[in-house]
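Morning!

As promised:
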Amino acid sequence: MISLQLRSAPLPISEPLVMRLNSAKGPDLSNCSNHDAHLIDFEGETAEYEFRGFSIYVNCQNPEELDGDVVMLTPGRNILHRLIRKTSAHNTLLITEQCDQKCIMCSQPPKELHVDLFDAFSEAILLAPFETTIGLSGGEPMLHKARLFEFIAKANLARPDLRFHVLTNGQHFEPSDLAALKNIELSTVLWGIPVFAADPDVHDKIVVKSGAHAKLHESLALLGSVGADIELRTVVMRTNVNGLPQLATHLATHVPYAHFWAMMQMENIGYARMNWDTEFSDNSRNFSPIGQAISLAVTKGLETTLYNFPLCTIPEPYRRYSVRSISDWKQKYLPVCEACNMRTSCGGFFQWYPEAKGFAEIKAL
Amino acid sequence: MKTWPLNFRNSADGSVLFCDEAGGFFRSSEAFLERYAMGNLNNDDTEFLLRQGHAFSSEGDFQYVAFASRWANRVTPWSDLSYVILVPTLRCNLRCDYCQVSRVTEHATGFDWSSEELTRVINLLDGLKTKSIKIEFQGGEPLLNLADLQKVRDFCRSRFDHSEFVICTNLQSVTAEAWAFLDAADTHISTSFDGSDANHISGRTKTQAVHDEFEANLRNAISRFGTERVSALPTIDVNNPPAPEEVIRSYVNFGFQSIFLRRVNFQGFARKAYTFHEENQLWKSYYRRFITAIIAYNSVNEYKIEEFYLAHLLRRIFRGGHHNHVDLRNPNWLGADYLVIDYDGRLYPTDEARMVTRIGKMDLSIGSLKEGVDNDKLELLNAEVSINFNPDCMLCPYQAFCGSDIVDDLSRYGRIDLPKGQTYHCRSHLDLFDLAFELIYSDDGKVKSSLAAWLGVPDFCSDLAPSLS
């Protein structure tokens, strides 16, 4: 597993500090900004970086793996957050841990406290590699929508090459947001929005919020009417699996402007771990409702993909809809995968995948 | 709740097909029609209509926005010229019975682009806004003017970010230079093969020896370039059609997966030699036999094949946004995203317009390279290219999937404004859509398996054929 946080010696700072690590020994002055830290020594497991005349000590195995990473230090803490890893396609900024839904499969359960890091994030993205996509997640980032819209609009001006993937529950878009939405370059933002069922009661039960389904559809229509890029996301669980074919027809009919639909397998962490025994739906045993949903949605012109499904748990005709979706830092393979010929095109498993109560049929292909 | 307008049509089995203007459809009964017409919808009706997207609760709600989006997706947007059909020569080395364009003999003079015309072609291409170009070389036999093909291709490759070339060739006589020219990843071959050796010889090659040359060239092309870059389509004479099974066998044998069944075209030479009266019924029954044969073939073979046009109609029925086939779309804008440039520099809105003009029926050219586009004429033609407000089409359940073909109307009837229901285009498409919906509502597992293959999905689910009792 790739670590997103590294131990570091605390610094006497009062604001979050953002810098880019340069691990080639000796400063490369040709690419020097005042946000660049340069490796000057590495001994034992401690890398020493020079940054504006100070030394930053970072605990790591190999500083070369950190080369180009954009990192953040916060006041009074000895943790260095790797915000944007240069070699990764899975960089996500955690906007807030607050949320107004309590989805039964949430992998990142909400917390009350919010610390506004938008200013640090604005500095960080200036240092990101060219044409990177950066995830903006939570919690529910739209709880701080004024700051979020402002952050994206500023980023569009400073770094028009960057794209954003915002994960939102679609509960907080209002007609009064139209002006702010028009102020951002919509083609740079993909809005990832979960819809769990065509049946409002089933959806509301899953997100533990009454009226959520109705509000979600108002938000989708609002985003659709301004031409926003929308990714519909559905985690497959026992509560909603049999309704997936109806959901496919529902989405193709009522959200036809969505760019694509992703059906996702559960991630055994957070609330999902608590509810795993009652909600994990083993598609290696019963793929039928998922298969039907794919055929329905694709026939009706809604591009559909599968996230987090190991290829061996998908019947062959449907494997082409699967994409390698599990982020590099939390992905693993099982011993049985050693002999598999499809491994390079398979996303594998989450680090915290529980083998003992996971898929019944896992095999090398 | 408000219901979007529903058009309807009786099906052969006594049920009634209902369609809205955004392409949503369902099957129901005369009893529902009565309830709908009289405003007596029951709770089951309203629940179904809302769920299936045929109604909305209040203006601007999510069902309303969704319908607007689906409707808009059915409309072909006006777009910049990016598909140019070029006719560098009218000369040809075959003399097919049903030649569409009155080609001239191989050694005739004055039927190729002059150097001035070639320069004008290049200048026109150079002035385009598009970054991506598709060039189709027609003829005559375009490989007889290889030098001009080469010049145009070289220019496009240097001028556009992406360029693609289709050579519509009879593959009769391919020189070493022509093979070298065809051997490029951006260059595709489109040829004719009439489905059986006997039919191809009778209509085109005339002798076995000439036919053998063609067949050897087609096999060579496929083995060198693969069926991704080589396609063929059969022209069928309804009075002497090859057996569907034989056409399928021959095409599969070549490695083709798609067969675009084309009737002898009404335009060009063909209209002199062939009768077109009373043959529509013959064509309809042959086409149906052909589809039945394909479904039977697919039911016992892993390698599924399609009849291109029916598969295209099915894709248009289920999805919006399928505007890439210029023969059927709405509005079918003329002189917009594609254009034909003849050997003499005349401009035409479609290849059929070139054929109609060539036989002296009427002048459907829309200008020339030298004098530019005749915008008045183009405007006149474009006034009739939308079927949205045509009195016949407005009531047709197939409107959302269909399109117009005013060049065909002009060619057959000499006028643009004949009631659509009386046109060949309308009648033949009613038959085709009737067939498509028969298949969609079929309970036969073999039919479903073919539908899934044609729509490019693993399974054809019954939810795709909604019914309201």
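The longest helix of chain B spans residues 280-300.

Hope this helps with the figure draft.
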